[in-house]
Amino acid sequence: MKKCPCCGKQYSDDTSACPYDHYSLVPIGPTVSSSEAPGVAPNNFHHLSDAVRAASNRNMFIGGLWCVGGIAVTAITYTAASGGGTYFVAWGAIVFGAIQFIRGLAARSQGDDRRNWDSSARE
Ligand SMILES: [Zn+2]
What is the side-by-side order of every strand in the sheet holding 2-3? Predict the structure, then answer.
């Protein structure tokens, strides 16, 4: 691995100069990436759990909204159909909201678990 001394980007050994700023690349150790270096790990970890907490809070908020909205739609249509019609149970919204809420809750309780953050970021 080689690293650009200007912008810090890493390149493979067959690259000789940074394509962005044209600095000559300097060789670095084969396996240690910047996120695994001991000096920056605590900082990264802290930053990561903040991001996870924010994402799980958002999950819980959105999930709560869907759940409440689904229950509201169900209640409104149920009331409207009380004279003897059909009513609509918003199972989809309620279940989706509940799942989203629980996922946020679970991610919050293990906020330092990187796999949770990755899976919730994809959706
Ligand atoms: Zn560079």
Answer: 10-11, 2-3, 26-27
Give percent above pLDDT 90 in the chain.
19
Mean pLDDT (whole number) for 93-102:
86
Q: What's the gap in Å between 18 CA and the centre of ligand 1?
A: 5
Q: Say how many Å lie between the CA of residue 35 and the centre of ligand 1.
A: 18
For residue 6, report the distance from its CA to the centre of ligand 1, in Å: 5
3-state secondary structure of 26: strand
CA of 54 from ligand 1 middle (Å) equals 32
Nearest to 117 by CA among 44, 67, 68: 44
